[in-house]
Amino acid sequence: MDKADLAIVGGGVFGCAIAYYYSRNNPDKKVVLLERNELNNAATSRAAALMTMVRSKRSYIPLTIETFKVAKEMEQELGENLGFKYCGMMHVAASDAKVKDLETLMQIANEYKQEAYYISKEEAQKKAPWLKVDEALKIGFVPHEAYCDPYLLGTFFARCARKRGAAIHRGVEVLGLLKEGNAIKGVLTSEGNIHADVVVDAAGVWAPILAKEASVRIPMAPVRSQYWITERADIFPVDSPMVLLPDAQAYARPEGGSLLFGIRESNSLVASPKKIPNDISDFVFSEDKGMKDLEENGERLARFFPEFYTTGIKHYVAGFSGYTPDSQLVLGDNPDLEGFLIASGCCGAGISVAGGVGLGIAELAAGRSNPFDFSEFKIARFGNIDPFSEEWLNKCAAARSSKVSG
What is the pLDDT of residues 73-126, one digit of tens each? Predict the structure, then answer.
């Protein structure tokens, strides 16, 4: 384990996707992925995994389309089903401002040749019996949207990468970078040095720590994402569509006869990457399993989900997502540094964009042109920031608090 063409730090869905595409497109080159814990066990496994293609951020759409495409390719290769649930996404607009947003979204769907149309309140009620749509002014439906098991998707990337010769090492911690002048030449690990032509920092919420060694400031911060899963009930059909409620800053999707839902609290929990333990399961995201946040924000959701106060909560799930002030990804290189790429700042959309992120970063690592436009994701777009300062952390947390999409 001393030489590779590409070394990837971090075995989440981004790291595994990069390993897959690089090994697939460069069969004569060696790629090594290093993960200190288990693969896909941090942010990836805790994601709600809404695979949203049609969204207001056009820059994300081609990346998600690639994820849907590669998922089918991997299913064929492994002879197994990833279990994508193609239930569609319902967008409920209950104010003039959100109606305008929805109309723009429907135009975007048309631009990318994605089927989308308006439905009546009666149709919406039939599709999602739990949903109250009395206040809705317009309801849009995108039938080919899906959700998935995020851990399984990450695992498929890793398994297909291994089949193509990628070396994936668990229990190996990256301790630092090997640097010569203005170039990164590999990584120092708990099992010795690995020299590599290119190093990718895909270390999730810990990515800024490694990047700091290369004097690269990743403009994101770890912000808590949390969601709840209700008890099973007849009003939650297993084939019900996902629902976005921007007027309530909430989203919901079916979960095996229950309802999985998330809301945006006014002050999202944020932490410095330096204060997050190596094993994310050791971090206490909420002493009361988010009950205080539900009490403070539940009234907005109850407008559309009247059974909210009488339905039992079965599970609480929380994790960190890397948020940026503009809710855009952080992808690509630093022009002043050779051999170092960043794949970070998922902003709660990491699962859906994983395919495009993996392909784009893998092609850059191989010295080829990027098939996607990463211009909105530049690392240095916020200037000379301190990613560990309280001011910066709060700025990133505010981006999640104001988010209205899934």
Answer: 999 999 999 999 999 999 999 999 999 999 999 999 999 999 999 999 999 999
Kindly report the pTM of this predicted structure. Answer: 0.97
49-85 burial string, b = 16+ CB within 10 Å, else e?
A: bbbbbbbebebbbbbbbbbbebbeebeeeeeeebebb
What does the alpha-carbon distance between residue 204 and residue 212 come to, in Å, rounded to a whole number? Answer: 14
Distance CA 151, CA 307 (A): 30
The runs of H, that is alpha helices, within 55-186 are 61-78, 96-111, 121-127, 150-163
Question: Using CA atoms, how far apart are residues 177 and 215, in angstroms rounded to an integer?
Answer: 11
What is the Rg, in whole angstroms, of the alpha carbon atoms belonging to the chain?
21
Question: Beta-carbon neighbour count of residue 162 at 10 Å?
Answer: 16
Of 316, 317, 315, 322, nearest in space to 276 by CA: 322
Helix (H) or strand (E) holding 299: helix 291-302
Burial of 117 (0-12, 13-18, 19+ CB in 10 A): exposed
Helices and strands (H, E) in the chain, number of each type? 9, 18
Q: What DSSP letter does each residue of 330-351 carry, written as one string?
A: EEEE-TTSBSEEEEE--TT-HH
Return the residue matching tokens 């911060």: 221
- Output the pLDDT for position 405: 62
The token duo for 232 is 């099973």
- Token reading at 320: 């960190």
Element (H, E) at 318: strand 313-323
pLDDT of 406: 56
Cα–Cα distance list, 134 to 105, 116, 246, 303, 360 (Å): 22, 22, 15, 9, 44
DSSP code string of 231-261: PP-TTS-TTPPEEEEGGGTEEEEEETTEEEE
Alpha carbon distance 51, 39 (integer Å) = 20
Residue type at 197 in one-letter notation: D
Distance from chain centroid for Cα 364? 21
The reported pLDDT for the residue numbered 266 is: 84
